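@here heads up, posting the sequence + SMILES for the magnesium ion run so it's all in one place. Ping me if the SMILES looks off, I pulled it from an old spreadsheet.
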Amino acid sequence: MELTLTVTKKQKSFLDATADEVLYGGAAGGGKSFGQVVDALLYALKYPGIRQLILRRTFPELKRSLILTSLSLFPKSCCRYQTANHRFVFLNGSEIEFGYCDSENDVTQYQSAEYDVIRFDELTHFTEFQYRYLLSRIRGVNGHPKQVKSTSNPGGVGHQWVKERFIGHEGVWTAEDGRGRVFIPATVRDNRFLMEADPTYIKRLEQLPDQEKRALLYGDWDLFEGQAFAEFRNLREGYENRIGTHVIAPFAIPPHWRRFRSFDFGYAKPFAVQWWAIDEDGRAYLYRQLYGSTGKPNEGLRWTVQQIGREIATIEARYEAGQSITGIADPSIWDTSRGESVAEMLEKVGVYFEPGDNARLAGKMQLHYRLQFDESGFPMLYVFETCRDFIRTLPALIYDKHRPEDIDTNGEDHDYDACRYFLMANPIAAKRPKPCGHFETDPLDRKVWVIDLPK
Ligand SMILES: Nc1ncnc2c1ncn2[C@@H]1O[C@H](COP(=O)(O)OP(=O)(O)O)[C@@H](O)[C@H]1O
Ligand SMILES: [Mg+2]
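bot reply: prediction finished. Complex structure tokens:
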């Protein structure tokens, strides 16, 4: 029995790639996902007993793309699809399992699993935490290849970390962890199958707004600006020395630092409560959070106001005894147009807030100012690594398509909003750019700005 497949040149490079971590990335329609499926099939046939996991962020995406392609491509004579556990089982003992990781912590369902090869499709839809976690599931003592092979367009929640991990090197290189990585660029013109089947495809990509066009048509990793806080860094290497990262290891907040509690109310959508401290230099630390979500993206716990208030009071009685805390909240919780306001209900359980400043763009700029690193690599805002939801949702915020200066409020922006109210109560000045000249006084007493030219 024979199976004849034709692949593009780039797909061939992907099939041949033996580096520990491979990214085949670039323009949409380049044939990346197809390449992923073919590669998985070839591995399954070539290495009897090999275990592979193919991942997409959500199950519906998985079903309509990769599983569908596999069902039509994989020869029925050598494998069978088990619908209930989304897995192809081959006669030679190989297995290809399909999985997804909707929420940040869904990766823990793979806690006790072992794979030889893990494949991410649309890698930028995943977070760095998820990627690193799954990396640790690759093990075993058989002689099969041990690899992560990923495919992706630029853009998405993980754009920044994927770019930093893979882009900017020629060929295979050895990363800091001693493992080999390679990036294979994809362009839509690589894929003659698509060009022949759908000649208007490129025309349609050309009509996209500029940023998306650059990402999807040219596969450009530099120009994607969709991510609002692309400067946010979660660098594990800096957790202890606090250099080059916004996420750090927790420590005990000194009792004399000023403390704040900020609040964004939500019922069907998550609510966000954050505890902040400010050190002697005015640096802010998000040291605790209470995030009211079910664990599903942007789905709230549906707690009553009293429940939220009591939980805040319990936490503070236990951990903040004797501390004075300034509460700052979304000004809309003082709204009385539908009866008793949320703020009044909270006061009844002993939780007090002052109205925050909801100037959206000013608040956004405050966050940009604070995220900026100084010459030594220290920012003005840190987040304890335990504040998982803040760390998950902030990098996922994207710009609004219609008001390109502001955040798209369809995203999971509750932690961001709570953060803004806190920041607006403690504003800092933008870092001044370094002066590149000086004043001189001329004989007529006019001030003249003299520009220092580089020597
Ligand atoms: N080697 C190939 N042979 C036949 N069809 C292909 C091949 N490579 C890609 N295609 C088809 O081209 C289209 C785009 O490919 P896809 O893998 O979805 O691109 P990408 O994941 O890069 O966006 C799909 O319809 C796919 O089935
Ligand atoms: Mg694809």
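MO: The first strand starts at residue 21 and ends at 26.
MO: One more: The chain has two domains: 9-216, 236-425.
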